[in-house]
Amino acid sequence: MPPLPPSTSHPSARLRPLSFLASAAMLVSGLAVSIAAPAQAANTTYYVDSVAGLDSNTGLSQAQPWKSLGKVNATTFGSGDRILLKAGSRWTGQLWPKGSGAAGSPIVIDSYDSGAKPRIDGAGAVADAVRLFNQEYWTIRNIEVTNTVPPTGTPGANLRDLRGIHVSGDNSQTLDGFVIDAVNVHDVTGQVNWIGGDTADNAPGINFKTGWDASKKTGGIVFDTTVPNIAAPPSTPTILNNAVIQNSTIANTSFAGISIKQYTGSDTGAVATGWGSRANAGDTKFKPHTNFVIRNNYITQAGTNYGCNGIYMTDVRGGTIERNIVDRAGTSGIETYFADNVTIQFNEVFGTTQKAGGADSNGIDTDKATTAQVVQYNYIHHNGDGILLCQFAFGDVKVRYNVITSNTRYQIYLHSDAAANANVYNNTIYNDASNYLIYGYGDSLASRYAITNNILYTTRANATLTTSPTITYSRNLYGGAALSVPAGDTGAKVGDPRFVSAPINAPWGTPATGPALAAAHELQVSATSPAVNAGTAVSGNGGRDYAGNPLYNGAADIGAFEQAGGTVPPDVTQHTFDALPTGTLASGTDGLTVSAAGGSVAVIEVPSASDKSVLLTRTTNTGSTSVSQTFATPLVGTVTVEANVMRQSAYVSGNDYFAIPYIRGANGLNAVSLAMTKNTIQAYSGSTLVTVGSYTPGRWYNLRIVISTASQTFDLYLDGALVLDNSTFRNALPGVAQIDFYANSSNYGSVVVDDIRTSVAP
Question: Is residue 680's pLDDT more than 50?
């Protein structure tokens, strides 16, 4: 998505009162700052070098660079100017250049020369390491910013009212045109101030019940506004418009990685303005910031116990949060609050935990008084809660086409007030870490929730699906361990979704790779899944699924993935035997190679005359009794082999080993080996023979083997449950050349085989 265009609601050449020029000097964070001197003509480039520069230089060439931040801060720049900081330079203090750019001609802070990003270190001595105030049309890129008070012997005692990059104002204007690009902001020791709570829980650096304006405004990158006098605020707010924060790394900053807020007048002695809060969806006092985009960033709070939001987008109308990684934040990876028309999409959020007194640990939270929220195409995993719907007071949200997996408490947490409603559809939820799938309680169940077309899969029996007259379950697929299907879901599907490969084994996203959205493709379903064409059409569905497939191909599918053209993955072979005559199965029938040596191979009417199968019986020690499929061109990619198998009699004595199947490469060496033997089902994992289950005579068992010739591993499912995960082959398998159901030597007895399917995806 290109940067948002500058606003055209007012002429770019208008004059603005600049409060910081009202006197000869002002005090900022305890430091005297002189009136800024005018710069050269517009579209001038200035160079600054902390080592070789001199403030007496012109600053107009690399041979004549300035040296200090003070020189830059004392200059008023104009539209099109560039302030270039030399790579490898380091400054301690605050960078606050003066002036404003114009629409289409911003002032740019950037680096020059090769090497490390130039570094601005506030050292905890200034509130903001980089500051803009009552200014507009600025681009800041390719710099490093930090603002740390050194730790003391008391945890939290070094936290202060600090920020890395701070954009603010109080001049009652609309300030336009901010781009923050490719910066590295890290280690900002901001204090943790909570809106509510109990002051009895205060701790060093952590304060509860501070109110709206004093809370959640420290961290890495902060956009907010204020007023000159809280006791006599102006009638018009300052609004920030058209801002992009992109391609950056924000690490170990507290309270937040990125925070956006509007002033509302909540402090003691303040006259309330109501600009930053919403009494209802049409509240005319609410004056949010507008048109914010946060994209392609890596945000981590793994190294601080005080990071309590990755992205906190509040008081915004018209926002997009996309393609970010949020790694091990506290409280909430991505949270919206008092916001309207915000889309959260294509993000990967993982590892969120409780920190610094926060009660939550969710991946994504649409919180109080949030309207027209859309949460789509996100990969949310290994948090406390996956998605928290906490729309206190009022709100509406669509949660669609997300993959939600392995969160330790609730995969979806229903926690909104009665005036809110949520439409939760076409998500794939894979639960292997909790006793809860979808959970809510008490007054939160007065809100209205529609739960439609979702795959709800659990490896833990009886995982909770909260029910209420206000929760409508419709056309969901319930799979895995036993689940109590909500009685109102009359269109429910119950069974194995036939995931391509589950659980997800692919690596998580990193700063180098970006969000690992493709990792979740392992939870796509096969073309034979009961989820295919089993959902109900939803209007205004966004037009695409998690993987980018258009909606719909035929009827709506259930889950986050829509089958593309009905051919993903395609069947290479399929053998049901239903149309064959009963009796001996001749070699070559339906493309199968058959050997009856040592016994017989026959089509039988089991389970019924319309649903036939093949019986392999071995009675003497001669050759091999076998049904096999050979591929002249070995199959490569993700190859899925599936069959239903049954033993008719219990094991008594002697040898008893039937391959069900063995899978080989073109060299004839066994790579994947499954067998029914002596009342057990066994498989080789590498060179180790592992018992994966037992069998009961006369009962059918579904075996599904998902092979990756790229990673040289396979997953094995028994009746839809994963029993071998990411197992290595017995021998290398460049491609699948043969699938063989057989017995040899003195392994006497029989096995019944049916519904053999082979499919492949590149």
Answer: yes
* Measured distance CA(6)–CA(175) in Å, rounded: 11
Q: Between the CA atoms of 505, 511, 517 and 521, what dihedral angle is there, to the nearest 10 degrees? A: -30
| pLDDT of 83 strictly over 80 | yes
- CA gap 220, 207 in Å, rounded: 19
DSSP for 618-678, please give it: E-SSSSEEEEEEEEEEEE-SEEEEEEEEE-SS---SS--EEEEEEEE-TT--EEEEEEEET
Contact assessment for residue 445 and residue 418, using Cβ atoms and an 8 Å cutoff: no
Give the single-character DSSP code of 270.
P
Which DSSP symbol is given to 330? B
Distance from C-alpha of 462 to C-alpha of 231, rounded to nearest angstrom: 57
What per-residue confidence (pLDDT) applies to 433? 96
Residue 291 C-alpha from the chain's centroid:
22
Q: Tell me the C-alpha distance between 164 and 148, whole Å.
A: 9
DSSP class of 696: -
- Report how far Cα 707 is from the mean position of its chain's Cα atoms: 26
Within a 10 A sphere around the Cβ of 331, how many other Cβ atoms? 29
Sequence-ordered list of residues with C-beta below 8 angstroms from that of 540, at least 6 positions apart, any chain: none
- Nearest 5°: CA angle at 650, between 649 and 654? 105
Assess whether pLDDT exceeds 50 at residue 543: yes
The three-class DSSP label of residue 444 is: helix
103 pLDDT higher than 90 = yes
Give the pLDDT score at 36: 67
**Amino acid occupying residue 494:** V
Residue 528: its pLDDT value, please? 87
Is residue 299 within 8 Å of residue 310, measured between CB atoms? yes
Q: Other CB atoms closer than 10 Å to residue 580's CB: what's the count?
A: 15
Tokens of 237: 């707010």
Question: Is the link from the previous residue into 255 a cis peptide, with omega within 30 of 0?
Answer: yes
Q: Is 34 exposed, middle or buried (0-12, 13-18, 19+ CB in 10 A)?
A: exposed
Number of helices (H), then strands (E), belonging to the chain: the values are: 1, 62
Residues 700 and 646: their CA atoms lie apart, in Å, by 5
**Beta strands across the sheet bearing 163-168:** 128-133, 163-168, 219-223, 256-260, 309-314, 331-337, 361-366, 385-389, 412-414, 436-440, 464-465
Handedness of CA 546, 549, 551, 555 (dihedral sign): negative
31-48 residue pLDDT tens: 334 456 666 667 999 999
| Cis ω before 11 (30° cut-off from 0) | no
Q: Answer for the pair 470, 447: CB distance below 8 angstroms, yes or no.
A: yes
How many whole angstroms separate alpha carbon 757 and alpha carbon 224?
A: 59
Distance between CA atoms of 755 and 606, rounded to whole angstroms? 12
| Per-residue exposure over 252-270, b if at least 16 CB sit within 10 Å of its own CB, e if not | bbbbbbbbbbbbbbbeeeb
**What are the CB-based long-range contacts (under 8 Å, 24+) for 457-463?**
457/428, 457/429, 457/430, 457/431, 457/497, 457/499, 457/502, 458/431, 458/432, 458/483, 459/431, 459/432, 459/721, 459/722, 460/431, 460/432, 460/434, 460/435, 462/435, 463/431, 463/434, 463/435, 463/436, 463/437
Residues 617-645: pLDDT tens digits? 999 999 999 999 999 999 998 899 999 99
Structure tokens at 168: 């603010």
Tokens coding 620: 């003497």
Q: 16 burial class (0-12, 13-18, 19+ CB within 10 angstroms)?
A: middle
Distances (CA, A) of 191 to 207, 304, 307: 8, 12, 10
Helix, strand, or coil here: 121? strand
Residue 104 tokens, joined = 């289409």
**Residue 395's pLDDT band (cuts 50, 70, 90):** very high
